[in-house]
Design a protein that fits this description.
By secondary structure, the protein is of the alpha+beta class. The chain has helices at 14-25, 46-50, 92-103; strands spanning 3-10, 31-34, 52-59, 62-68, 83-88, 107-114, 119-125, 131-137. It has one domain (3-137): 2,3-Dihydroxybiphenyl 1,2-Dioxygenase, domain 1, CATH 3.10.180.10. The relative contact order is 0.19.
Length: 141
């Protein structure tokens, strides 16, 4: 069964925001991955390398996820439009079906493809202006 979670973007203060959310929700599951772990990190400034590529905080049965937006990767954060919905399907076939179906008539910002974090991942804005991410983690089914 596919699950759906909220994904929020920040202008460099993702870590601060998620530490705050963690203190309120009192979760023991907060995790951060930094842009410095990416294969092309050496091409980034040290400041960008330290920013959050992905944060995750389990809240009940859901997950709040987020990241900082850095220059050249996603454009500027516009508050009010700085969130998206993230799907975690149970299979690569389901990931492909959801990606192709929901992105029809919309704008693909990152084609669905295999990633360095062992997932098949893609992003798009649907024809109604909603931002989506599809992330199938290999070996998790």
């Amino acid at each position: 069964m596919t699950s759906i979670n909220a994904y929020v973007n920040f202008n460099g203060n993702c870590e601060e925001a998620f530490n705050f959310y963690n203190s309120v929700f009192q979760s023991n599951s907060l995790s951060f991955n930094r842009f410095g772990t990416m294969p092309n990190a050496a091409e980034m400034s040290p400041d960008d390398q330290n920013k959050i590529m992905h944060a995750a905080l389990n809240i009940g049965s859901g997950v709040l996820m987020g990241s900082d937006v850095i220059e050249g990767m996603g454009g500027d954060v516009v508050f009010g439009n700085n969130f998206g919905l993230s799907l975690q399907p149970d299979s690569e076939a389901e990931a492909t079906r959801l990606f192709n179906g929901l992105s029809e008539g919309g704008t693909v910002t990152m084609p669905l493809s295999k990633t360095f974090w062992n997932a098949t991942f893609g992003m798009f804005t649907d024809k109604f202006g909603i931002n989506w991410m599809v992330n199938y983690e290999h070996g998790q089914a």
